[in-house]
Amino acid sequence: MWRSAARRSSQIRRLLSSSAPPAGAGAAVPGPCIVHKRGNDILHDPWYNKDTAFPMTERDRLGLRGLLPPRVMSFEQQYERFINSYRSLENNTRGEPDSIVALAKWRILNRLHDRNETLYYRVLIDNIKDFAPIIYTPTVGLVCENYSGLFRRPRGMYFSAKDKGEMMSMIYNWPAEKVDMIVVTDGSRILGLGDLGVQGIGIPIGKLDVYVAAAGINPQKVLPIMLDVGTNNEKLLEDKLYLGLRQPRLEGEEYLAVVDEFMEAVHARWPKAVVQFEDFQMKWAFETLQRYRNRFCMFNDDVQGTAGVALAGLLGAVRAQGRPLQDFTNQKIVVAGAGSAGIGVLNMAKQAMLRMPGIHRTGEGHNQFWVLDKDGLITKDREGLDSAVARFARGHGPDEIPDLHEGASLVEVVKKVKPHVLLGLSGVGGIFNEEVLKAMKESDSPRPAVFAMSNPTTKAECTPDDVFKHVGENAIFASGSPFGNISLGNGKTGYANQANNMYLFPGIGLGALLSGARHISDGMLQAAAECLASYITDNEIRKGILFPSVSRHITAQVGAAVVRAAVSEDLAEGCCDVGPRELASMSELETVDYVARKMWYPVYSPLVSDK
Ligand SMILES: NC(=O)C1=CN([C@@H]2O[C@H](COP(=O)(O)OP(=O)(O)OC[C@H]3O[C@@H](n4cnc5c(N)ncnc54)[C@H](O)[C@@H]3O)[C@@H](O)[C@H]2O)C=CC1
Ligand SMILES: CC(=O)C(=O)O
Ligand SMILES: [Mg+2]
Fold this sequence. Notes:
By secondary structure, the chain is an alpha/beta fold.
């Protein structure tokens, strides 16, 4: 199954990369857009605003004459002007502390976002590699930490514990008639930065920017949401500028009542919207997923999106060793972090192992994983273990490595297990230290893999420099936040892959939306992960490249894989004018084409006033 997916995938990739305009460029010749505003109201609406690019005919028709300098600039001139000012900012801030430079870059992008969405999204799409670290991890973490001070104007919606009983009417305050994609957080575990309360709104905003750039979701139809149920962050509670509720977090039934009311309100107004849960602390991440996943079209990105990306990376590590994929079942994997992300990865990896041909279906008995949390190795001797974690606890059977006791340290575990892969989702920077990495050098794999997946950069378990220095040149490295590749001398490169759920969530959300799925099944998520895993060629894998760059090409394929899985499980109800039968009749290539054509692409539309 995996090999044929790889072949199919490369066929599709060749096809997509031979078509010159970007995926979704079907919308490149835009039809006219009816605008219900005039004059300054248009200039102050980032959706319609073209700044100096309004042609004279529109300036006359829309009451803009005299409100703009007389010279009409082209879109290309505006684009170049912005990129030039961004590059001068880079030059002028050279040598300044990283956080100052990063925030200055975020500000210049954010100002454009506030003013002119068409130009903003075009520069974002064209420069996603450069700008992702600003609008997404790591800078978005810094923005969240400083949100109350940086706040100038709201973006998205805020539902607080004080709004109980009001949400059903509040949801109608959102001006857009249609919403396709919602990303919601309660701010309780923002990246690896902990509880940031209302300031966590930066994460849904950043994730939805990635949706627009990588999945072509129309920005008029996205909605970032903060559920402010209080914060337990003492520093924020004492901060006079803090913009959220100054009360401890709601717990238990009180908490769930708020989330229930919010979900009902969203569903009542936009029954087909896809809701992505993001950065909820573990207990609520799992509880809300179980509570809503069969009732609404929703998923938890940290649990499910991350799992798919990690699985693709784990399978890549098998291929890099020159082993067949079935060998995945023999890989020894040490995971540091038994939280929402770590357990999500373990569940999906275990499911994948159990689906591999030839595996002894020993079910729960088949345990290739050694899992650690803040108290060390988790074994069956641990008291009060959560059932989600307990299935991965090491026991006392004959297969167990002697002397690996409850609470063993990371370095002890790595020394004794000699794992093929060491994967970090702990939220603790630097725990893959020199001793641990030197122990990884003795791995049973010819290509030991180290995935330091915690975000932002300061929380990465190690850096690529550390890995290539201490584990060796054959190592494979991936991190949650971006690092640069490492020159290994003799013209060789140590690849710093980015293993981040941003490779999957855009395709999962888009595929769920375009299939009109009633809910998002394990099969749809698996299809997304398999598609990503099979995207990279053997040649790339041999070099140590595990993931493609984020692009609309990869999203179109992941999205199509999700649509097809929804169809095959009879979950697809269709979207807009494309019904379930039509979806079912599409070939694989036609589905990719359909998904790509549905992507929104930013171009100035001719504006026609209705006044
Ligand atoms: N690269 C990616 O796509 C993603 C990365 N993440 C990152 O993963 C990290 C964890 O996220 P969650 O699982 O949601 O958090 P969580 O708070 O639910 O779990 C953290 C886990 O790490 C454990 N831990 C703490 N100190 C440790 C240590 N010294 N050694 C081993 N384990 C330790 C904790 O006991 C807990 O089990 C965050 O930094 C987050 O940014 C999360 C989702 C996606
Ligand atoms: C990437 C992501 O979702 C996280 O770090 O939480
Ligand atoms: Mg997250």
